[in-house]
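Backbone geometry:

***
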Amino acid sequence: MKLSADLRALQTRLGHDFQRPELLVRALTHSSIASATRPSNERMEFLGDRVLGLSIADALVRADRAAAEGQLAPRLNALVRKETCAAVAKECGVGEALKLGRSEMMSGGRRKEALLGDAMEAVIAAVYLDAGFEAARDMILRLWGERIASADVDARDPKTALQEWAQARGQQPPSYTALDRSGPDHEPVFTVEVRLDSGETERATARTKRAAEQAAAKALLARMEN
């Protein structure tokens, strides 16, 4: 099978020449365009998630041999979560190579965080199936390199961290209120407010409601701790 120009360019950015190019094509095939003869990338996404997790866990353990499990776990979660996978996918130009159905394409599918994150995991599986674990791990370490090196000592989810902060001071868990949703359907922008029992609040705006909640929680926690 011969790869198209855009897939050859992606292959170069990934740093892996596929012996079985059909694996890369499948990794980039979204369910919106899949058929009985053209399977989607969903099963590969499942496999790639596990390959990513093992590769990152191994890298973290090797990088900090003194770290306890309680320090390693939040770093791992920060490095393998969907947002991080989507960010790496954007850097590699995965979105431009995605195979999407017309409706998904018209709704901005190439820029959707969930689709990009899933596709990146599927690409990892494609490399794993094409050349084995070491090849997939080497690609992951190369693409995630700076992120692994700078993983925060405490990379807890901001919402979890703020909730723990509040409960440690006898407060109820923070509440989140969606204040606004603007922009076109394919590129919505959400504004969210987080509030503590004691009355302190912060607002944040992001492309997804979850990201806005996280940003607001992070900002409020930083203010309260300072």
Observations:
- The chain has twelve helices and three strands.
- The chain has a mean pLDDT of 92.
- The first strand starts at residue 175 and ends at 182.
